[in-house]
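Model it.
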Amino acid sequence: MNAEAANPASPGPVMPTAVGPVTPTRRKARPRIDLRRLGRAALLGSVTRDRLPDAISHVVEAHRAHHPDADLEILRRAYVLAESSHRGQMRKSGEPYITHPLAVTLILAELGAETTTLTASLLHDTVEDTDVTLDQVGEQFGEEVRYLVDGVTKLEKVDYGAAAEPETFRKMLVATGNDVRVMSIKLADRLHNMRTLGVMRPEKQARIAKVTRDVLIPLAERLGVQALKTELEDLVFAILHPEDYRRTRELIVNNASRTDDPLAEAADEVRRVLREADIAADVLIRPRHFVSVHRVARKRGRLRGADFGRLLVLVNEDADCYGVLGELHTCLTPVVSEFKDFIAVPKFNLYQSLHTAVALPRSRTDSNGETPMDGQVVEVLIRTHQMHRVAEAGVVALGNPYAPPSEEQDDNGERADPTRPGWLSRLLDWQRGAPDPDTFWSTLREDLAQDREITVFRPDGGTLGLPEGATCVDAAYAQYGEDAHACIGARVNGRLATLSTVLRDGDTVQLLMGQDPASEPSPEWLEHAHTPAARIAIQRWLTAHPTAGRTEDEPRGRSGAARPVPEGPAARPAASAVVDRPGATVRLAGCCTPVPPDEVTGFAVRGGAVTVHRVECAAVARMKEAGRAEVGVRWGDTADCRVTLVAESFVRPHLLADLTEAMAVEGAEIVSATVEPPSQQRVRHTYTVQLPDAAHLPTLMRAMRNVPGVYDVVRAQPRAGVR
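Modeled.
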């Protein structure tokens, strides 16, 4: 943890001066600690045995503000061990090394961390950088502190080489799965290192900043620790985008020098409205941080005064939040499209708040003849004091939610975490299957980039938490693990859907599983798998069965057994398509079942194959957006084809037998068939058929329509989210 972290591009007076929630009493923010003064205090206080060392007095002050009855003796003992162990070690900036664990502990104390977390934070580098052992930590401070220190201790490069960093994160995430306080300490550690990163070489600054951007900031967001996330974002912004940072800083400085302040006038107006409504509330101005200002500037172009911050309204009870909302929407002009209720439906990272925006009333004209408030829109956040604490500190604000190991253990003797969020459970599931550090590292970054989550429901009333954009393939692997290889289809909201169907928040998903234990995943499922768990499971099976070959989304009968298809370029379903890539295996996409003379395009997939889609297929749009290069495709002389047809009919006896007989007369070989349960005396059939000649398709469809009771037959539509 000894990466050196002094602000890389000190932003001056407009940079936040302390980490921690804005308190409703508006107490003066504690100035950032001078590391040299801290170092002198650490050395002078190192021999203290019967009282608290002066060097941790600032930590104690912050801790007592949140936990007035905390026992401080364990903090004194932890500091004495940390200072004596690190004595003689110096940071690259010249300060005694003990200043680092002290600064990390102060960050956590200001966020409201409980005593056990602060104790582990003081000791978090002792095992890694000194002669102190984990057993000694456990003997002197207990198993909880030992577990936290072990969780944040790096793996040695001498043992792991280039894999040390990803394997350290893997170890840390597994430890976080049992105790989220591990990641709290890591995030505070990285924040202090980023603050003093200026002593490092530029190339090392950039490398650390990129890992912070790709891994630590998304983790801070998912754990709800906004106070750490926003400052980390600004520090990374300053290193990786110095010119944008400089311009944004100028915008903030120039706005701060204005004689008028629309946000201050808006705050006064909101206070007046709430005072007249007899609602007790604190109304604060919450300046945007650098990255937020930069994003707003890119979105809106020219910024006005109200764009540099938002109003924060803090009340005592949940009901008061809605009372404030009603008064603001009654007395001011609301911007309805900006309203969001994260109290009724909290975000997955514990965040709760009401978001709204109101148009400011006309105000006096300034010296430039402009009306500063007229036409401006101010965003307003409404929450309780407790919601605000959780919004700023996230999991840190939970205190110690864990029962002692002796009282609450799982079957393996490990502590069970009742607060573990769904995204962390999914991450821990797929990381076990990541075959090597490189795959784990790249997949972790990709997974953390998916920052929105949806909830879908199972027919039994259970739920599945999935990232936004997940498909039925992802739902299958989330519910069944590797048994999802046998999935043959799905019903979404009661209607049959392809496995490539993109799910939406609130959907009900019934996964249809085959009975054949030898069922196999389709190689093309990889194109529709959005989650690491699904992709890793599918890829692992394909790697173990390199000779397995089948077309995309291979249709299966109701028994679940897949119809075998010849391998290689001579495979019949792909024989009629020719691609501009000599020697490539060609597969026709099962999601849109292209046939001559459909206009088609192709995309290269793993294993050197090319998948052919109809140009209007939703998968084509998604792959183009992802930057996938198209491969030219044309129809060859051989016109055999596979196609999926949907028949709508009324319920009558022997309908299925008559329909399949009509298809057989026309030479159609039925590869798979599904029949939905009747609804209002109507029934829907889906057939995937093989035709010896695509030219026979219109004749086949006419023959099916001529069967008594059948009132329509159409090609399956290649749209995402078919319901």
